[in-house]
Structures are given as C-alpha cells and as structure tokens.
Amino acid sequence: MAKKLSVDIDYFDGYQLVGIVSQLKDYTLAYHINKEVEIDLKKFNNFSISDKSGNINDFSWYYFCNNHLIAKVFMISNKSKSSKLIPSKKEIDYFLLFKDFPDNTFANETVQLIRKIPNVMAVFSLDLNGIKDADLLIEYNELHEIEEILKPAKQNQKKYILKQ
C-alpha cells in the first residue's frame, strides 16, 4: 500500500502585513512613519499594474532595508486614481509589508507607533491567508523589488568591478 506524504507550505512565511487608514498623502505618511518608527522609507518608482481592461494603475511604493537584520519594509498605497490594489480591502489606504523579520515584534511595535501619528484613523495587522489577492500582492511586490532595488545594485556592482 502506497503511503502519501504531504507537506504544508505557508506561502506567506516571513511576511507580516499591516493596513493603514489615513487621508494623508503617501509622502507625508512616509515622513511621519520614518520619524516615529526611526526607519528610512524611501520613495521609488510607482508600482504599476494593469487591470482587466488593460488600464495601467500606479500605486506609490516605498522601501526600507534593515541591514542589521537583513529585513525589509515596504509601504504600498492601496489606491490609484481609478482602482484599488486589493479591492477586497477597499477601506485600507496603505499597506506596510514586513519581510524576513525574525518575529512579529517589530511589526507590532510599528503598529503602536503609527497609531500616534495625527490623521491616521486606524492601523491593524492583517492575516495574509484571509486576503483574496495576497499572493498577487507578494508576487508583484517581489518583482518590483527586483526591478527597483536588486537589478540596479547588481549593475552598480559590475561597474565597480570593472573600474578596479
């Protein structure tokens, strides 16, 4: 009799997601988060996704890498001029995505600090397994990170090697 082996894989292992409800502009919110949490979110090119109609929607995208922990924080807007990045979470204005942190401590502390920011109505942790398009959010974010962070870093490294 053949035995079946099964492996439970958590696609979202190493990720935590926080939702932020605020009418602040993305750059203002990033400034306040940088000040309160003592990180350095930096704006990069917008996160562009085409919808079912073929229209391209731009969502603001901020990035911070904690070099000590080799962990990353992304701030992504949930709204563009004509659509939502995650339509099932239409009440959320921004997402903070934490990647490769050893535990939830930093994300939980960040939630508490963001609650102190004026004009932030709500901040809460989200369960990635309960969000319909969370896998697409992770995938698109990783592709955007490659385009914006990893490829330019690799190109700069090649230039440095050639100059030596």
Task: Write a structural description.
The chain has 164 residues and is α+β, with helices and mostly antiparallel strands. Helices cover 32% and strands 29% of the residues. Strands 2-3-4-5-1-6 form a 6-stranded antiparallel sheet, sandwiched between helices. Helix 1 crosses helix 2. The protein is globular, with a radius of gyration of 18 Å. The mean pLDDT is 87.
Topology of helices and strands:
Elements (H helix, E strand, L loop, with lengths): L14 E8 L3 H12 L4 E9 L5 E11 L4 E7 L16 E6 L5 H10 L5 E7 L7 H30 L1
Antiparallel strand pairs: 1-5, 1-6, 2-3, 3-4, 4-5
The major pleated sheet works out as: 6 strands, antiparallel
- Class from secondary-structure proportions: alpha+beta
Mean pLDDT: 87
Compute the number of helices.
3
Order of strands, widest sheet: 2-3-4-5-1-6
